[in-house]
Amino acid sequence: MKKKLQLLLFLSVLFIPVINAQTVIFADNFDSYTVGASVTTLGYTVWETGAYIKADVPGNSGANYINMAGTAAKSNYVRKTVAVTAGHNYTFSAFTMTPATKNHAIGYKLVSGASTNSALFTNNTWTEHSISFTAVNSENVDLFIYIYGANTVNSDDWKLIDNSVSTATQNTSSASVQLTRSGLNQFSVSGCEVNSCLLYDINGRLLQTAYKNRFDVGNACGKGVYIAKITDKSGLVYHRKFIF
Question: Residue 137 and residue 50: Cα distance in Å, rounded?
């Protein structure tokens, strides 16, 4: 059911330029990563513990998820750092589950502020949780999953949404923004300064996220049709289709 909802959302974003005046700043479903890889090699940080990519059984979270096994008598975190804009309101969401129904939380920490956790959860099936905040300054924010002690928490489908982008900025029609292939697996975006570029397959599966105008898709793409959702530094969103 979760994957069906994500596909419907993807198709809505693809064919309708304005979606609830929101823009996805960051999203990761971990499906393109190698099973067994430490998340510290994938742009994440951990505190007091280790966290690794694991393969899920079909029908649950998807192909992969993050598994974090905590250290006894310690506060354990896995974190992702993302840039946010002053005055904008954001929602961080993620799916979590703890096999032993242990307390865990999601949360955030702005550079200029203290850590803020959600309520504690104990769900032992995949459940989506969210927490919202407003950035006072243009700065970085750490998004995190937390568990205390020698307990295990799994997480998937991390996403940060900017709720403050006006509908006027959701125009996808600018012909000046182009996505071109610049090498074997390299692509470049011209016509804007990229804040994020989310690469989807035609079924709505997120394959990769980039944060610069030139990026390498590596082995993420085989032959087929793909959609790039490009968000520039001012919040404008563009959708570009390409054939690999």
Answer: 31
